[in-house]
Fold:
Amino acid sequence: MLLGVAVGVGLTLLLVIRAVNQPRVRLLERPSAPAGVLHLLLTGDLYTGNAQATYDAALGLVQAAAPRTVTLDISTLTHVTVPLLNTLRALRDDLASDETELVLLDVPDDVLPVLRRAPWFVEAEQEGFVG
Structure:
């Protein structure tokens, strides 16, 4: 009996870990989008376990499309975490090195003040990082 419970708990834990470690970005199809613009959607909050996978997935989508501008809709964000800040900064910097601009869209009103606590974000916002 206890063995069955332990197996059930173990499998549930594995399923939860697998689910939360999935990349949190996907392509947004916008037929009216101008040429050279790629629209991405952040589908959830980032934490240590899914930040790198999300970054890699976003970079892969960008490299496949080779746009001049990438918009990232972050309307689903509920929490600002250090991995989120690090991922946004790395993505912005890496895209800029390829002369691609990253612009955040639909930043939730309660998230923006927290993002502004990071000095690099304030500077980036002044340069047009937030659309």
Observations:
- The chain has a mean pLDDT of 92.
- The longest strand covers residues 37-42.
- Strands lie at 25-27, 37-42, 69-73, 101-105.
